[in-house]
Structures are given as C-alpha cells and as structure tokens.
Amino acid sequence: MTAIFRREVASYFKGMLGYLIAAFVLVFAGIYTMAYNLSGVYANFEYTLSAIAFIYLIAVPILSMRSLAEERRQKTDQLLYALPIRLSDVVLGKYLAMLVVLAVPTLIMALYPLILSQFGTVSFATAYRALFAFFLLGACLLSVGLFISSVTENQVAAAVITLVAVLLLYFMSGLSDFVSTEAPASLLALCLLVLLFAVVLWLLSKNPLVALLTAAAGVGALLACYGADSAAFEGLFGKIMVQLSVFDRFYTFVDGVFDLTAVVYYLSMIAVFLFLSVQSLEKRRWSE
Amino acid sequence: MTFFLYSLDIALKGETGLIEVSHLTKRYGGHTAVSDLSFTIEKGRIYGFLGPNGAGKSTTMNILTGCLGATEGEVRIDGHDIFEEPMAAKRKIGYLPELPPLYTEMTTEEYLRFVLQAKGVRRSEWESQLRSVMEKTKLFDVRGRLIGSLSKGYRQRVGIAQALLGNPEVIILDEPTVGLDPAQIIEIREMIRALGRDHTVVLSSHILSEVQAVCDHIMIIAHGKLVASDTAENLTNLLSGGMTVELEAKGSESEVRAVLDGLDGVAGAAYAPGEDGTTRVTLTPAEGVDPREAIFKRFAMSDVPLIELRKDKATLEDVFLELTQSEPDLAQKEAKEA
Q1: Helices A183-205 and A236-244, axial angle in degrees (round to 10)
Q2: Cβ separation B120–A84 shorter than 8 A
Q3: What percent of chain A clears pLDDT 70, i.e. is strictly above it?
Q4: C-beta separation of A149 from A77 below 8 A
Q5: Quick one: pLDDT at residue B258?
Q6: What is the ipTM of this complex?
Q7: Is the Cβ–Cβ distance between A174 and A220 less than 8 Å?
Q8: Which is the most buried residue in A13, A147, A228, B214, by most CB within 10 A?
Q9: Alpha-carbon dihedral B118, B121, B122, B126, rounded to 10 degrees
Q10: Distance (Å) from the C-alpha of residue B248 to the closest C-alpha of chain A?
C-alpha cells in the first residue's frame, strides 16, 4: 500500500493537479472569507465553509477522475494485478493519496480562524468542527468519485459521471421538497428510486435477472408496507432524502453541532464505496 | 529418518514443475479463448508460446500471472495456487504484458524503485538489485529520464527490468519483441537468452523464427488449445518422420512406378507429371529409413534416367502451419456437433 500511496502522492504533486486543486479551493475560500468575514464582519468561519461547499462539485471530479480510469487506459492496471499486492491496498493507497491532496488546502484553511481572531472573537470550536466536517464531506465525495473512476473506461467519462453524481447529492434534499408530501407521491418516488437502482445494477452486473428480481422485491416490499400502513408514507420520501443527503449532514456542523452520527455516516459511506471500488477491480479481472 | 524425509521431499519436488497448469478454460461470453489447456513448465529452461494472433497466448499468460481469472482449471506456481494464494504465487513471477505497463510521468529510476517497493523487496537490497537489473537491461543511460520520452526499445527494456526486480524464479514475457526494429529485436533476444541462465523464461510470439532462435521448448497454441509441445528438433521430426524424398525421372508414370515397385522402407508415394515428359515423385519413407541409395541403384539398373533426387526436411514452419491451420475445421466440426 505504501508504494501505491507514495507513487500517487508524488504524481499529484509532481504534476499540476495537486497544486491546481489546492489553489482552486483556496481561491474560493479566500473570496468567501473576504466577503463574509472581513467585509461582512461575521466572526463565523463556518458560514464561509458552508457557502463554498459547492466547490466540491468541481474539485472532486477533477481529483478522482484519473485515479483508476487512467490506469486502465494506459494498461498499467496489468502491473497492479500482477504485483504481489492486494487490490484493497491499491484502492486504499490511491484513496489516501487523494485525501492528502485535499488535506493541503484544508490545513491552510485551518489558519483562517486564527487570522480572523485577530479582529474579534472567533468561536474556534464551531469553526474547526465545521472544517473537520468539511474535510469529511470531501473525503466522502472522493470515495464516490474513486468508485466511479473504477467502473469507467476513461477519465472524461469518470469526471462527467462523478459531476452528475455529486450534483445530485448536492441538490438531493432540495429536490425532494418538490415531491408532494402525500403518501401516494412518496410511494411513487420510492418505487422510481428502486427501479433506478435496479437499472444501475443491471448496467453494472449485466445480469438482467438479478436486476429484475431486485426491482420486483423492492417494489413488492414497498407496496406491502404501503398496504399495511399508508399513513407512514406521508412525507417519507423527503425524510429519507434528507437522511441520505451527504451535504445536509455537513450543514449540521455549520450550525455548531458536533454530530457523531454524521461522522459515522460519512465513514460508513467511505467504507462502502472503497469496498465497491475493490469489488469493481476484482470483477474486471474475472470478466474481462 | 530426517534424511529420508529430506530426500523424499526432494524427490517429490523434482516431480512437480515450476508452473503447473491443468484443464485451464477461459470463456468470454460465448467465445472460448482458452480451452482445456494443461501443461507443465520446468525449472531452468526457456519456453516459447507460439501461435497465430488471437490463439489465446495473451489470455493464457494473463491467467498465469493472476491478471485474469479463469473460468475453469487450476494454475500452480511452485506449488502455490494463483487464485488461492495469489501473494505467494505472484512473488515468484515477473511479468511483462504485451504493452509494457509504464507510468510515463515517472523517470526510469523512480519507476523501478516504485516496483521494488510494491514487490516488497527489502530496502537494504534496493540498491544492489537496481544496479544489477539496470546492468542486465542496459538502462543506466536513461535512469533519470522520463519514461514518456523514451523510445519503444528502451520502454520495452524498462518493462523487462520491472519484471526482473525482486529476482522472481519465472519471467513471463508477452510478445517481447513486437513493434521493435531489427537491431532492437536482436538485442532483446540476446537479453532473453542471457536471462535464461538464471531464470525460467516463458515468452510468447507469433513469429516462428524468434521462438526457434530463443527457446528450448516450444508450445504451439491454436484456437485456445495446445496442439504441440516439444523441443524444436522433435517438432520438426513430428511430421512424417521429418523427411520426404523428392525425385524426378525421365519417363512416364507407369515406367517410374515399375522401377519403384516393391521398394523397401517406403510408406507412401505420390506421382505427378513434370515438364518435358518427366515424372515427379514424392516418397514418404518409413521411420528411420533413408531409401535414396536403393532408389539410385534401381534407376541405374533400369533404363529410366534419374534427373533429380533430394531429401526434404520438414521445417518448423510446416509443422506450425499444419498444426494451426487444420484446427479450425476441427473446431467447426465440434461446434456443429454441439
């Protein structure tokens, strides 16, 4: 794992990408700190972080697109398969290297509350909790990006699909407001979600039977639950979306709450997507 | 007792090969790339996989090195199953895929150091291994250059260097000379021959002369099946004892037939009319018999002038063509039966 990790970090910082990501994040962090904290005279750095969360829409796809898709295109994945290293170590090494790249601007941003404290009283606790959650949010999105990079054939496709995925996550709770809170609407939305999942499963596994069974089982279970207690479905879709929303979890920290469930949620998301990435590499070895 | 066990151990090890492949099958969807392949590779020799493009050479090599899963069958590297104990098995193998897996943004030395670390070589051995491998592959001049800026020949050598690191027992090279110019090809071949002294080498090629020039043992693969596996010499002897006798005599077919009638040690004869009233005959002698002397004496006694008499040795090319081309009919037949 160390070998992969060191190679990846070196390649990020020998090329432009590492610096580009750091500069990109810092430019927006700088502008928003300027506008919110210095001009707007707010002592809350967490508001700035909450306002710049959208930069992950760009930073995450650019940082993660290359990681595994490029190995495949350059046929260097053959080396990774032939070397006596576990695929989980490959994925972990690559992921940790991306975290290092993300950590660089995060650490620089850690200086901002200190600078701001020169001009007034800053609540360091909330500021650093929010920064910690900001980093976790990025880490979580990067694991999604890494997984998408592992299933795509080239980095452009990986970037576009990751962008769409992050975009959906970004607007997820907002979009769910448009779904009527009535029980039948919730049922319909959840059924559509199950079908979407089945389609994705079908595309990834190329096994129509499994996808069909999943769809049938999911929709069947939903209908059964609806038949048993239709009142429970009122507003359910919105609630689920909010629970699942990666960004909403971060906003809790911005409000000054250290939410342990959110930390657990982020870490589980990361674990799931890293696991899926390993599986995707493993599967490629068996089907290609 | 200990001595007995020790010698038993040696005896057992002596029987098993370094690489043992049994009943290997790989299917992609409906297409069978490798079908029920079984062979053993023994220590200290250079093996050549020979077959036309698409015969399943790369697939086989990818499975041997753990880059690809198999549909059925078993691969053991020095006793370690490549699917069950991949770590132990992969440590014994150095692999150069068809396209050298190089990170173009790294320098040669950085890349080789990365591979050393990834192969888990002890840090104290890095410098000595790096030096010996760069010496073997003549990479000292380009150690500081970006791999992206190297020529194809140098890239191939970096690929071979990568395979050699960690001093694995088997070196597997997939089409090591493809796309190189003649001078580079000769250079790489010499390098492979030198490697054969310290390692077991398995290489694949669709070029017959290359395999013939470099390898001790040739395995011919066609349509995912092993159609022949032997030394180059034995393979050439495989076809009709390896020899035919061609002769041309001035006379009609019946006259020539009369002369040759009842000649000992001839398994078969084919007659064809030649130019200016001559007759050409291709004789297939029985194994280990050279009937030329007897033929000469018979013609000398008869009134039919013998114009030409020569021995033809079947070349490896003939073996290769016969073995690889007869197969599709067979495969089609099988498909129809199924």
Answers
A1: 50
A2: yes
A3: 99
A4: no
A5: 85
A6: 0.84
A7: no
A8: A147
A9: -100
A10: 56
